[in-house]
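Why does residue order matter? Because the sequence determines the fold. Keep that principle in mind as you read this record.
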Amino acid sequence: MERKVFEDHRKGGYAEVWHVAYPAVLTMFSQTIMSFTDAVMVGRLGAVELAGVGFAGTMVWGLYSFFNGMVNGVNTFVAQDYGAKRYRNIGTMTWQGFYIALASGAILLVLSQFSGDLFRFVGPDESVQRIGSTYLGIRMRGGVFIIMWMCFSAFLRGLGDTRTPLKITLLANIINIAGDYVLIFGKFGFPRLETEGAAIATVFANGVGAVLFFAVFIAHKNADLYGIRSEWRLKMAALKRLARVGGPIGLQWLLDMGSFIVFSALIARMGIAELTGHEAALRLMHLSFMPAFGLSIASTTLVGQYIGAKEMLYAVRSGNSSLRMGFLYTLFIGLVFMIFPEKLVALINSDPDVVRLGSSILRLAAIFQVSDGLGIVANGCLRGAGDTKWAMFIGIGYAWFLFLPLAYLGGFVLKGGAVGAWAGATLYITALGLTFFFRFRSGKWQSIKI
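Structure:
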């Protein structure tokens, strides 16, 4: 009896959340380091190169976002089926995610032929267009690897295995960093490809990661239990269920990233210094919100598993524990951004105008850190419950009817430039984060059925 009480006390507590979260946090942090290293290396080529690659990177994730969101629904189903001991469903739903990934890669391959047109449409400086469109095309041709990566990591996370994704991500990051150094600067007899080299290195590293994830999935120690080798067929009923949960996630991510691409395009029209300062500050912001996504992953998994096991008390406790941990982390990062902005921006690009603009943006980022972290983690809790439609409507509505109008007002109407636009973004991010937080606290997600 005492053992049962002890186990019940641990369920949903900080120790359990941290046990699931820390590999996911380290995974996200390592991805942040990879992105940061890319920025530092490309930044050594010049401000135009950093602006082109940074803006193209934003567009890449915008184009990936719908497909990534679709397959991210695998996490919700695997977690709930695992908690409910419906083990055969786990293989079925993951295979459907894999088929979505293959179809998504084919679509991105076709769209890659129009990367130049996409870049001209958003309208940054011509020199930025030339660099960015080439980088964008290469990354889009390798898009299938990222979506496969997302699908199979969602499978593992749903089971509570966040360590395997960490190991694969660390290896892929090492390959990417080495590839960047060799191909960007032309080392060890390789040609100097500069920004094209950065794109090729990233696609190659993503490809290695995707192959490793697929191998782990096929050879999983519980492959027979989860139906991995028997439930591989395309099943329309299962595909529709996945689309009902993953579709809203994907649509929210797509339109959310779409709004951010428009936001970045507005800043790009202000000049190269403004765009470079914006991109430098954005790279540093990854230090805050990517690890918060790690906690979000843990909350999705634990909330989903406890809902599947019909233990709602521990689902709620898991969410609350994750939120408190996210609060402490983002509070710390906010203080760092507020105290050392110039030094941080100078690590990426030392141009005085870039440092001045980037540090001003980073101080604004310090203001919204806590609310952003709470919103990211709370949204993860809601995904674990399958509460994705509500999140979709709120995310899209705030992005297009609050974020962009406020950014345009601050940047152009009030003539605040890039800093004014980011002041509008600060109000939006604060409002969105608090809205997700209060949705979780309301408990309405507890009645969602998938």
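The mean pLDDT is 89.
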